[in-house]
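Entry 14. Structure prediction run on the chain below.
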Amino acid sequence: MIFPPHPTCRLLAGLLALCWAGAAGAALQIEADAELLPLLQTHLEYDADEIARGGEWREAQQHSLLRQARDLLATAGYFSPQLSGEDQGSDLLLKVDSGPRSRVSAVDIRVEGNLSPEELEQIRASWLLPVGAAFTQNDWDRAKTALLARLGSEAFPDARLASSDAEVDPASASVQLSLVLRSQARVLFGAIHYSGLQRYSENLAARYAIGVKQGDPFSTDAMLELQQSLQRTPYFSTVQLELQPPAADSPEPQVRDVLVRLTEREAHALSSSVGYSSNTGARVGLAFDTADLFGRGWEMHTGADIEQRRQAAFVDVFMPRTRFGANYGVGGGMERSDIENLYTESTAFGLIRTHSRGALEMRDTLNWQAETQSSPDRDTQDNRAITLNRMWSWRHLDSATAPRRGVALMGQLGGGIRPTRPDEGFFRLHGRGHYYLPVGSVDTLALRTELGATLTHETEGIPSDWLFRTGGSQSVRGYRYQSLGIQEGSTVYGARYLAVASVEYTHWFGPSWGAASFIDLGDARDALGDFRLARGIGFGPRWRSPVGPLALDLAWGEREHEWRAHFSLAIPF
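Output returned:
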């Protein structure tokens, strides 16, 4: 082992790296700081055969390597290195004493153009390579690019970098930075024009065009919001934006139109599906969606699912978005289920309103619901109600299908009246939350909670989906689906109150496969004092499929002293 002779601590910690150029053996050895070895090993270029020939060929290779090493060290902020080459038998030893690393000693940023003092101060405050920071060429380039993007993103899309200079003083290991930006003309948004429309009208596209407003200062964020708002519609598959050039004699501020190039997606889609879950068994499904019902740009979503313990069909029709950002529609559906000896047939139809604000989505429904319940333990019961409900959902996740970090929240607030008890309403509050926290580089800790309460003196006549049962996948594993509730004989009925919590830790062995362990707690009762949280403890493999992690869990239900298998798609609501 070769120990570098320089007395500094940094070089005492240096490593000797051997680089092989071919089967003949080592041709170049590098003695340098450990942090600089990857840079030199990756980028130094040489001819091992010429080094092996010796003489003038070896000397030429040495001069080339010293020149390359000096240039590479300069990009990392080392401008006064001590370099030498020595013969080591048939090999060549390159000794590198990098010297001190240069730091930024001054920054001078000037902007030529019509900027206010506040705008100029904001631009300077966004600079990424401040005084005292270590200088590298990559950081210098990145800081210039970011500063130009910052200026160009707000009102000045034609901003240019006029000049930049990094003045190096090797003696003091310092760098003085200076740069000049030209803002060019200030730009305001003009009118929005559309191209590529065949089936749909400009008026329909304009209903979804949010972000860009005529007369507002240019903003890349506004352009991105416009693009995303159109991309999220069911009408367009691709959306491209172009800021049009100004008129030849346009005064400042320039008013520039926006051209939106659209590609329409297929209006109609028919799909089928086959699946299985441990909650409701095997399933087949058929769905038909159209974004151009009656040739008016109305949306229709209809489908049917046939599962072993549940069958359902629905149809929803939505008119195009209003200028206030809401979608209004009508919908209806039928469902039949046989779960925990409670046989239910239900029908619902009513009005729907959907609205979104960024990541927050809202859905309001006004429904007439009719339901017939029968079981071995009670007489057949008819439930009728007029219900009004609002649901909020909000997601802030790093991935929609395989989250490792973030939060997903859902809340509902609603109520209704029953024809049998017109003077006595009922109210329901229901919330669910998922929290994901990365552990290390690949593992994930997932926390889940769900709370619900239906406020009423008497549950008779209330449709079952306004009450609570729990158990099964995505709730309390180790128990049958919806087996935790009000037990009467062999039947489980819905309860007034719900509480569920879960902690799950997943370790990923690679990009596709992992294993999880978890503990679930939960119960549904008619009185808070009656709660006895059922506990389920288990484990199971995970596979990242294109639609989300598939979970196969084996869970021990402590209340029933029994192992149960659960299979589901492990994603938030």
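The longest strand covers residues 378-397.
Filed with the rest of this week's runs.
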